[in-house]
Amino acid sequence: MDLKDIFALIEKFDESSLSEIKIKNNEETISLRKGTDIQSLPGAMFAHPGAYAAPHPGPAMGQPAVQSQAENAPAPRDAGTTEGSSAGTEVITAPIVGTFYRSPAPDSPAFADEGTRLNAGDTICIIEAMKVMNQLEADFDLEVVKILVENGAMVEYGAPLFEVRRV
């Protein structure tokens, strides 16, 4: 099952009246449950795989993962960008729900800092979703004007991540 299928399943499950579902497909098993505080589950501490050694708790289900920036964000447009707040800038938004990471490991430099110029195809951040590290790549040559999310924060679909300027 690929990520698009999984996210479609989650969306349909969320809209349904079901409270729990478990699907087995060959070697994969997906379990979904509504109304459970994820922090109360055994072993509900999550860590960035690999070098991130210090675990950090995820937010409780049903609570907003991103503060007011995500609530006030305009709907994402093509390529995950929206108009920026400054003249001539655009906002790169989260294409999926997950945990935002600025670097591949805690002791590695960030993919991008404010003022960094990136070429199309360069990795700008990682969003971890369901223990899969999804590299978000620049769709065009850009300069990072402002980073809008803290490293390790949970982000929702469409949440603003970076304010950028095309170069």
Structure explained in plain terms:
By secondary structure, this protein is mostly beta strands. The chain folds into two domains: 3-34, no CATH class; 68-166, Beta Barrel (OB fold (Dihydrolipoamide Acetyltransferase, E2P)). It is built from two helices and 13 strands. The chain has helices spanning 3-15, 68-71; strands spanning 20-25, 28-33, 45-46, 56-57, 81-83, 90-93, 98-101, 117-118, 123-129, 132-137, 142-147, 154-155, 160-166. The strands form four sheets. Strands 5-6-13-11-8 form a five-stranded antiparallel β-sheet, with no helix packed on it. It has a four-stranded antiparallel β-sheet with strand order 10-9-7-12, with no helix packed on it. Strand 5 (81-83) and strand 6 (90-93) form a beta hairpin. The radius of gyration is 17 Å and the shape is elongated.
CATH C-level name of the largest domain: Mainly Beta
Write the H/E string, N to C: HEEEEHEEEEEEEEE
Average pLDDT reading: 74
- The CATH superfamily of the largest domain bears the name RNA polymerase II/Efflux pump adaptor protein, barrel-sandwich hybrid domain
Largest sheet: 5 strands, antiparallel
Question: What portion of residues is helical?
Answer: 10-25%
> What is the strand tally?
13
